[in-house]
Design brief:
Layout lengths: L26 H5 L1 H13 L5 H5 L9 H9 L3 H25 L3 E4 L1 H4 L2 H15 L2 H4 L3 E4 L6 H14 L14
Parallel strand pairs: 1-2
Helix pairs in contact: 2-4, 2-5, 4-5, 5-7
Amino acid sequence: TESAGELGHVRVLENGPVCNCGSYGCLETQASLPALASQAVRAMKEGAVSRILELAGGEADRVTAEHVFEAARQGDKLALGILDKAAEYLGVAVAGAINLFNPEMVIFDSKLGLVSELMLETVKRVIQRQALAVATRDLKIGVSTLGEEAGALGAAVMVLDKVFEIPQRTVPEFVEV
């Protein structure tokens, strides 16, 4: 049902907000681009002062994750706090996946690359703290440079691998005479 590897629906916050999937506290509710924007809006409605609102033209309903990123780059405390918490949740979810699958490499979407200077070190620190030491000893962590084409390129490579697959020959059994 095309849900394998859906890290966005790993629970990272006990009793967290309801997710689109129907569960509670999923990574998507804490670290997705829309979640970052809504966290900023909620905090400002509760009285937090931030450059985020100014960057959005003074209209809370126009706040986007990009406004949060820009405010964080300018040293805005609310924005930096939101991104730091999101990075922690992302690190926890990825550490769980590392413990399950023991990959050689973890490549983050290019969207994280837009704010890697703000989030990646925290993500790496949490992964090192939460994942098994044996699984992170030689682990490589990076950010994709493929951009929006990553999914299409991956699908094309899978098709090409299948088309040019070398058939496996069976090894004859050894019969002792």
